[in-house]
Amino acid sequence: MAPRKQREIFDATLRLLAAKGFDGLTVEGVAEESGVNKTTIYRWWPSKAALLAAALVEAPALDLDVPDTGSLRGDLEELVTAFGRLLTEPPARDVAVAALGAAIHHAEIDAGRFFADRLARERVIFERAVRRGELPESADPMLIVDLLAGAMWIRGVFRGMELKPGFAAEVVGAVLDGVR
Amino acid sequence: MAPRKQREIFDATLRLLAAKGFDGLTVEGVAEESGVNKTTIYRWWPSKAALLAAALVEAPALDLDVPDTGSLRGDLEELVTAFGRLLTEPPARDVAVAALGAAIHHAEIDAGRFFADRLARERVIFERAVRRGELPESADPMLIVDLLAGAMWIRGVFRGMELKPGFAAEVVGAVLDGVR
Questions:
Q1: How many structural domains does chain B have?
Q2: CB-based contact (8 Å) between A97 and chain B?
Q3: Mean pLDDT on B160-170
């Protein structure tokens, strides 16, 4: 499928999800919104869950740039700030929170694939940090990412609190330096 | 309302939520399951969201003991292990994940109240640690709790990965000592 067409399908999928929730999302609706024939969509993605899983990984709306600021602290602060914006600022928030929220109830959506894909792209941050001597080789990137992303999720989504400008630096500082 | 009756109403609320999701949860269903008159339930909680918000905070099924092991590290490892079990082991998982998942889509459920209530109970862990000289007075308990709970949530729920026995100690070690 042409990349532009695919992008339109994914955008329509996430737009409908944000507007109507997973139960209101239908392949028919996506076909209508994107102007692509329903049977064509089904040929590529066998179900709306499969379609949403692919959209989660590929959609530009949920993309995070991998920063390269010259330091591990700077890279992680930018990454965490961008993730916080994704979770709390409309319109990205409505898409990201709806998609990840739906994944909790529907294992077929496979949020694990989304997080694995993001971690694969972010590994370069940790490889550079090890080369610069900022991080021991034994450090576990997945643990670091889960702590950082998790704190943003609890604070911004579950507590529903504003993510203040200094919060990303606090979170990164706690994980790099420890809280003691 | 008698505490035993209230407990039965909350248990029925969470049981129905886990079985049918938030959309399938009704005050009528809770009345039937708990043997309490519907109008009585409405007198105490004006909506199913209000009922669920109260159940989240009060239900024994979602209770976490506040440990007192003699050290901050020991206390946090026990707390994090218990939270991980809550998120991944049935039947508690089905209730906790359904309730927190529903809160993402329905702000009236107010997961923030659940987390604020838990933090109020857990503050004693940090006060003891400061008194023992294990933690500077300036340390932020909410930040620590959000990092720990967040990592368990991302790993156990979003990634859907098994929380191995040593994982709680790794998470606590990273937050107390830093990853560098």
A1: 2
A2: yes
A3: 95
Please answer yes or no on whether B155 and A146 come within 8 Å at the CB atom: yes
Distance CA B149, CA B167 (A): 12
A155 and A109 co-located in one domain: yes
Alpha-helix runs per DSSP H in B89-140: 92-105, 111-131
Residues of the domain holding B112: 64-177
Residue B25 shares a structural domain with residue B41: yes
On whether the CB atoms of residues B84 and B96 are closer than 8 A, the answer is no
| CATH code of A135's domain | 1.10.357.10
Do A18 and A88 lie in a common domain?
A: no
Interchain pair B98, A115: CB under 8 A: no
ipTM score for this prediction: 0.93
Q: Are residues A99 and A166 in the same domain?
A: yes
Closest by Cβ to B179, choosing from A114, A151, A175:
A175
CA atoms of A51 and A99, how far apart (whole Å): 12
Across the range B88-113, mean pLDDT stands at 88
Mean pLDDT of chain A: 93
The nearest alpha carbon in chain A to B139 belongs to A179
pLDDT at A105: 83
CB pairs under 8 A between A and B: 140
